[in-house]
Design a protein that fits this description.
The chain is an alpha+beta fold. It has helices at about 10-15, 30-40, 50, 60-70, 75-90, 160-170, 195-200, and strands at about 100-110, 120, 130-140, 145-155, 180-185. Helix content is about 35%, strand content about 20%. Helix 6 (about 160-170) packs parallel to helix 7 (about 195-200).
């Protein structure tokens, strides 16, 4: 069982550049985030906060994690953008300089029915219905690497929001300098005409 009671120095030094993203110094949100990231790396399950507590120091309680996540005192989009950019630049590039950007949609199930962006949906015609909110993921892949680099929450009240978000992710993505060719992948739900025109306009495939 994980028995560390302090954040490893190399982990803290690596993540220190992201400390300004966390605006609440009194609650030590950056310190909590470092522990959550360590627990996510060690955990083999679904990454639920309750399951991550087994890898955390005894003084770091579940309610502390929930308070940090729900506080709104840190910018998750900036954090994902900066961390994914560093990871893309750190990993060894492919010899042909080709990167694949794939669109995917995922759902976070919820028990209550009060979520402002929640909806009732199902995966297939014969699958059971679920309540939750959906997100669009942009994933970069090459060789044997597959890294989520952007995420956006869908609004069920906005018509075509899935493709609107996908185009925004493509327009704002920052690719490494070694990229010579970009191939965009997605299922039929992402094949809107404005999206295809954007891909052609950027010189991608």
């Amino acid at each position: 069982m994980w028995s560390l009671t302090c954040i490893p120095v190399n982990v803290y030094n690596t993540l220190y550049k992201f400390k300004p993203v966390f605006r609440c110094a009194q609650a030590r949100h950056f310190w909590v985030f470092c522990w959550v990231l360590i627990a996510l790396i060690l955990d083999n399950g679904k990454g639920r906060l309750k399951d991550l507590c087994q890898y955390l120091p005894p003084k770091l309680r579940y309610w502390t994690l929930m308070r940090m996540v729900r506080s709104g005192q840190w910018d998750d989009s900036v954090l994902v953008t900066q961390m994914s950019r560093d990871v893309l630049n750190w990993l060894p590039p492919p010899a042909d300089g080709v990167i694949h950007l794939s669109a995917d949609k995922t759902r976070k199930d919820k028990c209550g029915r009060q979520h402002p962006l929640g909806l009732v949906t199902r995966d297939r015609a014969h699958s059971p219905y679920h309540f939750g909110f959906e997100m669009v993921l942009l994933i970069a892949s090459w060789d044997h690497y597959r890294i989520p680099i952007r995420i956006a929450v869908m609004d069920p009240q906005v018509k075509g929001h899935q493709n609107i978000l996908f185009r925004h992710l493509l327009e704002t993505v920052e690719l490494p300098s070694w990229v010579r060719q970009v191939i965009v992948l997605g299922d039929a739900g992402f094949a809107a005409n404005p999206t295809l025109k954007l891909i052609v306009h950027k010189g991608w495939t």
